Amino acid sequence: MNFDAIIIGGGIHGSATAYYLSKAGMKTLVLEKDYVGRHASGVNAGGVRLLGRDFAEVPLSKEAMSRWQTLDDELEGDTGFRRRSLINIAIDDADMSTIKTRITKLTGLGYDHEIQIDQQELRERLPHAAHNCVGGVVSEQDGYAIPYKATSAFRRAAERFGATFHEGETLANLRQIGDAWQVRTDKASYDTGTLINCSGAWADKTAMMMGDNTPLSYSAPMLMITARMPHFAGPVVGAISRQLSFKQFENGTVLIGGGAKGFADRDNNRTTLDYKKLALAAETTKTFFPIMKTAVINRMWAGLEAYMPDNLPVIGAGVNARNAYHAFGFSAHGFQLGPVVGDVLAQLITTGKTSFDLNPFRIDRFERKVL
Amino acid sequence: MSDIFDIVIIGAGPAGMSAALEAAQQGASVAVLDRKATPGGQIYRDVTQSPLLDPSVLGSEYTEGAELVEAFMEADIDRHQNADVWHIGETGEVLYSQDNQTRRLVARELIISPGAMERPFPIEGWHLPGVMTAGSAQVMLKSDGMVKDGAIFAGTGPLLYLIVAQYLRLGVTVNAVVDTTPAGGVVRAMQYIGGALRKPAYLIKGLMLLNEIHRAGVPIFRHASNLSVLGESKSVGLQFEQDGRTHSVNADHIFLHQGVIPNLNMTRALGIEHHWAEQQLCWTPTLDDWGQSSIPHIAVVGDAAGIQGAEAARHAGRLAALKAMNKLGKLSEASLQQQSSDHLRAMKSFKAFRSFLDAYYAPTPEHRIPAASNTLACRCEEQTMGQLRAGFEQGAKDPNALKALTRCGMGPCQGRQCGHTVSELLAVWQNKPVSDIGYYRLRSPQRLLSVDELSQFQNIKPAKKPAEVSA
């Protein structure tokens, strides 16, 4: 079968790329070895965060953030997005000056989305924060979405424009023939003009088949969620210098993250949890929000996520093959970029250019001495 | 080092207690963790301290449990009651909460017997206040001596008739028994009659129960179908069909039951291999004759290993203990075979008998797989069949995808109530066998765990000394 574009990987970036490509009129196929949203895209913390982004990511993240505000309408679906603001808490003067330095730098670059708040304002916004919290930094547009729903909304919107999704089909082999590609899976063989690698924690394997090496690693960031409890936190909460991260959903459940990692068994699609680290996250949450003492944990889990050495994703064209593109390695903060990365790739593929500076995200950046 | 045991057993029902007794007799160091205040499991719940003046109304099968419990209490076993296991590590580490403290011990060999639960009965109105399971009627009776007058008992299976008989012996009125055993059950079961005849005492006991209910003058509606609970904010009665006619019977309390299924949460969270058992219409851990699971140091016994009943559970417990001794190098292969043979033979005959029961009392599809779109499938997250169907049509074809999309199975019961329903619904909708559909991916904690308990993981306590336990 012939396609204009084949995307390897049905996560949020694969599904979003399929949406923008098929909207642009390309006949698109997504090959997903499990089911759409099975791994990091479906089970992450759902943070839609512009606050605290690496400077290289700010332009993409800002664009994504404005798209999130109306994404449900755009996709005619339900991503579960809620604008709630995100506050990173400062616990001492050192944290406050870290915030100040960063905001000065952001202002210099022309950005004004991060705002420092003092202790009184913190208490107004988060009355249940511990008394020793001295202030923080807020980004008003931030919030959360429901990861599986958002990924699935992109997929259905893509299907409405004619994209095809094959679930339970694993990539076996890639061959570049002339400018085109032959894609062989465990079930069939396809020809395509363009190939896009959105394979998440498996993206280094796909990249290698495309001729590009990449120093990707993978891990299993862990999460836990409480049973319903009374509402005590509107904003999403993080901290400047502690592994604190939680959000309370509309149904009262509280999702606790914090970046603790479990164990990833990529070959078997499996993760195991490190309960000692989850216990530390529970302890931190309780210390900052004493109301959480009585919370009860209902479920714990982890997802398989790809990381790059500099914690920045790979986005853009392949370097050792023609008509090859990558978007992977989002290092546990790619969910928010969903609505923009797919569009950037679609622009690159259909017009050959994009208005964003993708140099920090080149796949060969680790081979160059400047880094 | 004192918190490392040769064999750790989780659950002190007939299977767990028997395993502990055998292991102790064989000279192993044994610890038993049980979540209840007293040993006995569900079947022998509070058998040594019944609130009833005359516990014999509960039947001889119940009172016989007292002997096993007494033997268990006297043996050289580290018994930990009120020990609620919430995590079993792949290495054999067991974490549990006791008196609000997180404690830990380590097992060389693990034998787990998390028991059975009643099969969900997802019909219209099954979530209304006043509707309970027949098993919960029995728990109230065994633990608190509490009963409900004028209730309806509906469904199928030996336990249903047993509880009705127990009620009647106590002089409690029962409004009706609505029996959903299909007319074809007898015919289906006859092919297994050979197995049934191997246990004539059980057969006679079953017939006697039915006779007892009949004699007491309780209206029995046989081969009833299409059950639904009547009422808006609470149950006021039950509607059903019989011989093409619609009946409704009033009652404030309705006890539903259609057999029991393995309690999967622990075995699933451990990642033990499971299969769909067509005969019992439930997911079951895949085990050998000694209860050995796909994880080398873990055996599963009792009804969690597939429903076989309390007496079979005793043999299964002994077999698992013998095999564990063999794996520990404390029992030769020859001795294992020799000491196992009687138990293996007994298990075989219980299995044959169970085939008969399973065929006779097979729960009908209409009461397992909801057809009305407003019937609740997931009670915790209040997801109806119609909402699940909508999720399926949006592309969620796997139980975990459906869970992520609709929240079914995300609530505090961790999918106990809707797991089987969701597997079967997805199978029907895709016209695939249930075995191709799979089940929820589960993890620890095995129960709701307070943030306080979890954070104690930093400074975890070893198991209490036996002296402290008995104090």
| Share of residues in helices of chain A | 25-40%
CATH topology of the largest domain in chain A: FAD/NAD(P)-binding domain
Q: Uncertain spans of chain B, ≥5 residues at pLDDT below 50?
A: 467-471
What name goes with the CATH superfamily of the largest domain in chain B?
FAD/NAD(P)-binding domain
Sheet-strand content of chain A, in percent, reads 25-35%
Number of helices of chain A: 10
CATH C-level label of the largest domain in chain A: Alpha Beta
Rg of chain A, Å, rounded = 21 Å
Number of strands of chain B: 23
What is the CATH architecture annotation of the largest domain in chain A?
A: 3-Layer(bba) Sandwich
CATH class descriptor of the largest domain in chain B: Alpha Beta
Number of helices of chain B: 17
Write structural notes for this entry.
The complex is a heterodimer of chains A (371) and B (471). Chain A has 10 helices and 22 strands. Chain A is α+β, with helices and mostly antiparallel strands and 371 residues long. Chain A folds into 2 domains: 2-63 and 147-215 and 309-367, FAD/NAD(P)-binding domain, CATH 3.50.50; 86-140 and 218-307, 2-Layer Sandwich (D-Amino Acid Oxidase, Chain A, domain 2). In chain A, a hairpin with a 2-residue loop joins strand 10 and strand 11. The model of chain A has no long low-confidence stretch (mean pLDDT 96). By secondary structure, chain B is of the alpha/beta class. Chain B folds into 3 domains: 4-117 and 261-331, FAD/NAD(P)-binding domain, CATH 3.50.50; 120-258, FAD/NAD(P)-binding domain, CATH 3.50.50; 369-436, Orthogonal Bundle (Arc Repressor Mutant, subunit A). Chain B contains 17 helices and 23 strands. In chain B, a hairpin with a 4-residue loop joins strand 4 (84-88) and strand 5 (93-98). In chain B, helix 1 packs parallel to helix 3 and helix 10 runs antiparallel to helix 11. Chain B is globular, with a radius of gyration of 22 Å. The interface between A and B is medium-sized, with 38 and 32 residues.
